């Protein structure tokens, strides 16, 4: 099987550019995932983010998680659990309006560092969207504009820790799903693995690499590229030892952004629009109820709505 795509972003600045762009294109078309090294976020800075995230978990979250496990009797489960994930999480919103100052129990230094980390990731996400535009033959800035809506993109970080699990064969760290949003940038533990993606019917490990950023594509990019790029099912396998840290930052369309296949791509491929047109917030509301099910019925549901109400006129009026 082909090896998991690792992209060295430094190679975009020289004669290696064409080959690197080709690797990104192949990863987007055939994996829906790739891993970035030399992406411009300083290793020492990433070390501080990791250290403080793990400290915060130990101080403020670990005990709470243990109490939840005890209350639900999860250590003693005998059969597969399908309605919860073995993870401890909280969510930081950065755009359009940050909520970092409102999250309880965060030390000031951690708030400051996470704000800075978000700013750097936002820049990286927008740089990646432009590289995707270049590969797709879309004008520079098209994807950023498509995500913009009236208030700019939604951007936030899910801070997760996956503690050791006594029954990993019965409880998933995070059940299989595709991501509803745009482009996702993940800073994950480099010692404790667990993230897997579905490729050609097989679950493949996403290798933990020090100071790398793992990128995956969400449902919205599948729609805008008219299926040229696909969002891919992934999951987290719980481990019996070691707590795995995961900081997943979601660069998503604004709530009122209208999402539909890029006309330039539909024309170029001489095909029809294979995906519906919808408002991002409506898609999210629908997704939350069916996150752990196949994505195709989600697209179908919006196609049917579009056909029934001819939403296109309203959305573009």
From TrEMBL:
Domain of life: Eukaryota
Cofactors required: Fe cation
Tagged with keyword Cytoplasm: no
Coiled-coil ranges (or none): 107-134
Keyword annotations: Coiled coil, Ethylene biosynthesis, Iron, Metal-binding, Oxidoreductase, Vitamin C
UniProt pathway: Alkene biosynthesis; ethylene biosynthesis via S-adenosyl-L-methionine; ethylene from S-adenosyl-L-methionine: step 2/2
Keyword set includes Endoplasmic reticulum: no
Short name of one Pfam family: 2OG-FeII_Oxy
Segments forming domain Fe2OG dioxygenase: 153-253
Broad class of enzyme this protein falls into: oxidoreductase
Catalytic activity: 1-aminocyclopropane-1-carboxylate + L-ascorbate + O2 = ethene + L-dehydroascorbate + hydrogen cyanide + CO2 + 2 H2O
PROSITE patterns: FE2OG_OXY
GO biological process: cellular response to fatty acid; coumarin biosynthetic process; ethylene biosynthetic process; response to molecule of fungal origin
EC number(s) from the headed UniProt entry: 1.14.17.4
Gene Ontology molecular function: 1-aminocyclopropane-1-carboxylate oxidase activity; 2-oxoglutarate-dependent dioxygenase activity; L-ascorbic acid binding; metal ion binding
Gene3D superfamilies (alphabetical): B-lactam Antibiotic, Isopenicillin N Synthase, Chain
Homology family: Belongs to the iron/ascorbate-dependent oxidoreductase family.
Protein name: aminocyclopropanecarboxylate oxidase
Native source organism of the sequence: Sesamum alatum
């Amino acid at each position: 099987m082909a090896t998991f795509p690792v992209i060295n972003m430094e190679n975009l600045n020289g004669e290696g550019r064409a080959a690197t762009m080709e690797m990104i294109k192949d990863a987007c078309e055939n994996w829906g995932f790739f891993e970035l090294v030399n992406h411009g976020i300083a290793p020492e800075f990433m070390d501080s983010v990791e250290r403080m995230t793990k400290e915060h978990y130990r101080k403020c979250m670990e005990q709470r998680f243990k109490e939840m496990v005890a209350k639900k009797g999860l250590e003693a489960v005998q059969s597969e659990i399908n309605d919860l994930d073995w993870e401890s999480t909280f969510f930081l919103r950065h755009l359009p309006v940050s909520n970092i100052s409102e999250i309880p129990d965060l030390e000031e230094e951690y708030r400051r560092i996470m704000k800075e980390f978000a700013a750097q990731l936002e820049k990286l996400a927008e740089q990646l969207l432009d590289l995707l535009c270049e590969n797709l033959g879309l004008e520079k800035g098209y994807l950023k504009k498509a995500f913009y809506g009236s208030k700019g993109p939604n951007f936030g970080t899910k801070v997760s820790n996956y503690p050791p699990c006594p029954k990993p064969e019965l409880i998933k760290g995070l059940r299989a799903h595709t991501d509803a949003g745009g482009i996702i940038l993940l800073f994950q533990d480099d010692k404790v693995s667990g993230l897997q993606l579905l490729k050609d019917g097989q679950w493949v490990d996403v290798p933990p690499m020090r100071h790398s950023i793992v990128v995956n594509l969400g449902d919205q990019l599948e729609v805008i590229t008219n299926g040229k790029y696909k969002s891919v099912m992934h999951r987290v396998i719980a481990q019996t030892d070691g707590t795995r840290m995961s900081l997943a930052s979601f660069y998503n369309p604004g709530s009122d952004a209208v999402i539909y296949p890029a006309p330039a791509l539909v024309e170029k491929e001489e095909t029809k629009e294979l995906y519906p047109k919808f408002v991002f917030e409506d898609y999210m509301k629908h997704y939350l109820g069916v996150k752990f099910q196949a994505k195709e019925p989600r697209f179908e549901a919006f196609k049917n709505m579009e056909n029934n109400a001819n939403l296109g006129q309203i959305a573009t009026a």
